[in-house]
Predict the structure of DUF3105 domain-containing protein.
Amino acid sequence: MGSSKSPSNARKARIEEMRRAERARERRNRIIAITASTAVVAGLVGFGSYLFIKDRDEKQKEEARVEAQQKKQEKERKEAAARPIADEKNWDAKKLGRNHVTKPVTYPMTPPVGGDHDQVWMNCNGDVYTKPIPEKHAVHSLEHGAVWVTYNGKAADADLKQLETRVKATPYSLMSPVNEQKGAIMLSAWGKQVTVDGAKDPRVASFFAKYVQGKQTPEPGAACTGGIAQ
C-alpha cells in the first residue's frame, strides 16, 4: 500500500514546520533585542546616575567652600569692626545738621563728615570719581551710610590703585580727590574720620568694616544709586 500522506499534505506540513521555525527565530530575536535594549538602557541610567551624583557632590563641595569663605570673611569683618581705630576723630552726630538745602554750605571740617546737604546724594555704589565732587552731595551719601575715601596730590599711586579696587568692590562707598585736605589719604563716614598712612594701613579695613552701613548711619538702607554722578 502507498503512504497515507499525499504529496500535497506533506508539502503543507513542511511549510507549517518552516513557519513555526521562523516564528521561533523571530521570538528569539525579539528576546535578544529586548535584552540588549534593557542592558543599554540600564547602562545609560547607571551612567546618568553616576554623572548626576558626581555633579551633585561637586556642587555641594563648592557650596560648602563658598559658605566657609563667607563665614571667614564675616568673622574677619566683625573682628575688624571691633578693633578701636587709632587717631579717629568723632563728632556728635546729633549736632550735625541734616536739613536739605539749596544754598551753599560751609563745613567746619575738610572733607565734611555731616551737616546740611543737598537733597540729591552722590552715587556711592562703589563709585570712583577722578575729579572733585560737590561736598553737599557727598555728605548726603554719608547720611545713607557710605564711607568716603578722599586723597590729595601727596597720595602714592600704588595706594590709590588698591583703594580704588576696595571701593569698587564695596557698595555704599565712594572715592574722590579733595585737594584741600591735610592728610594724603582720609576716610570719612557720618560723624567719623581718620587719616591713614596708606592702603595697607589696618585702619582702612577696620573703618570700612565698622562704618559701611554702620551704627552711625542716620538713614540705613537708603539708596546709594539713582543720585548724581560726575
The longest strand covers residues 147-151. The helical segments are 7-82, 135-143, 157-168, 202-211.
